[in-house]
Amino acid sequence: QKEVEQNSGPLSVPEGAIASLNCTYSDRGSQSFFWYRQYSGKSPELIMFIYSNGDKEDGRFTAQLNKASQYVSLLIRDSQPSDSATYLCAVNSLTRGGSEKLVFGKGTKLTVNP
Amino acid sequence: DGGITQSPKYLFRKEGQNVTLSCEQNLNHDAMYWYRQDPGQGLRLIYYSQIVNDFQKGDIAEGYSVSREKKESFPLTVTSAQKNPTAFYLCATGTSVNTGELFFGEGSRLTVL
Question: How far is B86 from B102, CA to CA, in rounded Å?
């Protein structure tokens, strides 16, 4: 069973700080990695994706990928109370039939305190 | 307005009754998915479809059924065979079945009494 592991948290940071969210995955063949944000009671929305080793920046968000360590992270700079949500890590894994399937972690709950 | 519409948003049913959740999209996406989310849990895949009249079981298909008669529509039936149906159900679409870039509907929260 291919797995995606996240620290469930809650992770609590003060406003303006850097929030660091981490994710490990078991399928060494995975090539695509995604971060979804889910506000309480709402549906997930895609905020970042990364396909290559290294860093990818988009505004206050930076995704980091290390395929050798099977590790992907999301950094949120200058955290705002509006960033308070659950962040889901998702990884594309190959099925036996050859298609790709998205496997989600259980999510890390982030709280940004004013 | 482009998007994914799920209905109903909230649904209460008695044990033993079948329930059908609607999912309609006008994004012209080929792939459609149904996920289930329980409190404190990630998303678990129930069924997915990449073309009309074709669909595949996900990780937890037992007790559920789907159809894909039109590209725009992918309804999910929660049957009485599903042992623990109370959950938040999410429909999603993607440009292809191999993409991880999914767009989600607002979800349907089913409570079985």
Answer: 24
> What is the distance between the alpha carbons of residues A102 and A100, in angstroms, rounded to a whole number?
7
Contacts of A31 (CB under 8 A, 6+ apart): A51, A92
Other beta carbons within 10 Å of A93: 21
pLDDT of residue B1: 58
| Residues A24-78 pLDDT 10s | 999 998 999 999 999 999 999 999 999 999 999 999 999 999 999 999 999 999 9
Closest chain A residue to B97, measured at CA: A100
The vertex-A87 CA angle with A83 and A88, nearest 5°, equals 160
Q: Determine, for residues A44 and B90 on separate chains, whether the beta-carbon distance falls below 8 Å.
A: yes
Strands A100-104 and A85-94: antiparallel
Structure tokens that stand for A79 in this block: 């955290």
Dihedral pair phi/psi, residue A108, rounded to 5°: -115, 125
- The SS3 assignment for A82 reads helix
Q: From the CA atom positions of chain A, what is the Rg in Å?
A: 14
CA pair distance A34, A77, nearest whole angstrom: 18
Instruction: Please name the member of A99, A102, A106 whose beta carbon is closest to the beta carbon of B100.
Output: A102
- C-alpha span between B70 and A48 (Å, rounded): 31
pLDDT-derived band of residue A88, with 50, 70 and 90 as boundaries? very high
From first CA to last CA, the distance across chain A in angstroms is: 40
Nearest CA-CA distance, residue A78 and chain B, Å? 26
